[in-house]
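Q: Structure tokens for this one, please.
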Amino acid sequence: MPTEESSVARQARPAPGALLLCRADPESVAPVARLLREDMLLAPAGEEWSVLVPEGRPWLEGDEPIDRVLTGWATALAVGAPWPVLALWWDADRAGYTLASGFRRPVGYVWLANGTPVGEDEAMRSFAGRLGLDPVLDMQSLDELTRPDGEADGRARMRGLVAVLTRAGVSLPDGLAPGDSADSLDAAARAQPHIRLIEWWGWREAFRAELDAVEGGRLGPWLP
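A: Here is the predicted structure, written as tokens:
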């Protein structure tokens, strides 16, 4: 009997998922995203934003924690790009974000599954400053996410964060909701009219694509 209850409890545990928000149009994001060596779906997410929806294999099929994977991806995308990258992630125990921009140290915040804040207030202030959010109105909303709230679980906190980001131009496509499983996010992304698949080409093709993006295609014909 305990074994059966444990199995049911495991099945009821929320599935992990993640989104990568890039402050750039899809055409700029696509060549850099291929360097992650993971198949992802890419769609517009506002006038100046794009969203990458990963399949989730590193944390679904391996032992790598989802927050570590997303932090690595966000950092890799931002290092070679002039725009910031925001990773949103959640699993059965926690939810959080990581913001990467250039060579700066990434900043992030974490909530437990029940919504308990376990991050540092300074991270929220750095987050707002790097994204150019309103230091008064937006910062007030972010401060509320760092205070105890018995009616808001971790995923509700993520939705609150996205609500603040809408004032910075973020508009997630229909069906892409923080807190959903990777499978649900994938299905919702594939239903979008302007979706594109980002596939791993191999190092030679990815390197050519990155140079084409940076140099406007001038070096592509000279690569071996």
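A few notes: The first strand starts at residue 17 and ends at 22. The longest helix spans residues 66-79.
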